[in-house]
Amino acid sequence: MKLVAIGGGTGLSSLLRGLKEEVGKEIEELSAIVTVADSGGSTGRLRKDYNLPAPGDIRNCIVALSESEDIIRDLFQFRFRGGELNGHAFGNLFLVALTEITGSFMQAINIASQILRTKGEIIPATLENVQLCAKFSDEEKVCGEEDITEYGKKGKSKIEKIWIEPEDAKAPIDAIAKIQGADVIVFGPGSLYTSIIPNLLIKDIREAVLTASAIRVFIVNAMTQPGETDDYTAYDHIKAFREITGIDRIDVAIVNTKMPSDQVLRRYIEQGQEPVIPDVARIAKEGIEVYAEDLIGEKEDFVRHDPKRLAKLIVDIYKRYGVSSKL
């Protein structure tokens, strides 16, 4: 199958680590379309200095799909400590340097992918320096991915509207081609408002998804995210995604049903995060096929989907629905 994963943050990179094991087996072609609206940390500083799309999530996806030696992967994730480079990831600086040399952010990604021998293609959602903006229920407008999340954490207001500036940002031709040729399109897991939805706020990507014949799979987060999805159930995640993006048809929803250990759960609750309630019946009533399974890792200190388990489930879904006919 030809699979396109759309998202960003640690959720997408974790998913890609599992999917790459299926490349050359069940997956013929793997592509990741990655948000470039991040505004925090090393990425945010480099965006301001060099006026380019956010490199951080791109870097993480390149490393996730890498087949290179451990030392090369560690090098790309290495963060400097002290001095003017404090906090910068080597991989971010590497991508910026390649962009300056070649004059193309896309070319920089391709060269870095060749160096790390990735088992898949990484494509930014746009090559433009976009800004994510949101309006909250208290009428406050906040711009900047990091600032949106922080504002949500501080107040009791919720995100009512979210958009990108400039609103007419274009997607790379490669991204559109991959979506149109996909057998399966996967959304998530990841931050709903700041990692997944921003990709679909780009008109070209949204329209490509709407016209593609691929099976659409939505992976619901295992935990709520402070400032974004407080008190959201699994159904609420899908409802918000459909309403904001206009992508109404979701064929399959993947929902975690496993609870974290008491020790891990207490730590998350102290940070304002709770397990996402798997209200499967509400999702099924929308005509969406639901796969509700134990999907989080058993030995993790963090609550994350197990990459291999998730990849196997996606392959099984395609075998069930995609080989004979698409939904």
Cα end-to-end separation: 15 Å
| CATH topology type of the largest domain | Rossmann fold
Largest sheet: 7 strands, parallel
Radius of gyration, in Å, reads 19 Å
Shape: globular
Descriptive account of the structure:
- The protein has 327 residues and is α/β, with parallel strands linked by helices.
- It has 2 domains: 2-37 and 125-321, 3-Layer(aba) Sandwich (Rossmann fold); 38-124, no CATH class.
- 43% of the residues lie in helices and 16% in strands.
- It contains 14 helices and 10 strands.
- It has helices at residues 9-19, 41-50, 56-64, 70-77, 90-102, 105-115, 145-154, 173-180, 192-200, 203-211, 234-245, 262-270, 280-284, 307-321; strands at residues 2-7, 29-34, 121-124, 131-136, 141-143, 159-165, 184-187, 215-219, 252-256, 289-293.
- Helix 9 packs parallel to helix 11.
- The relative contact order is 0.14.
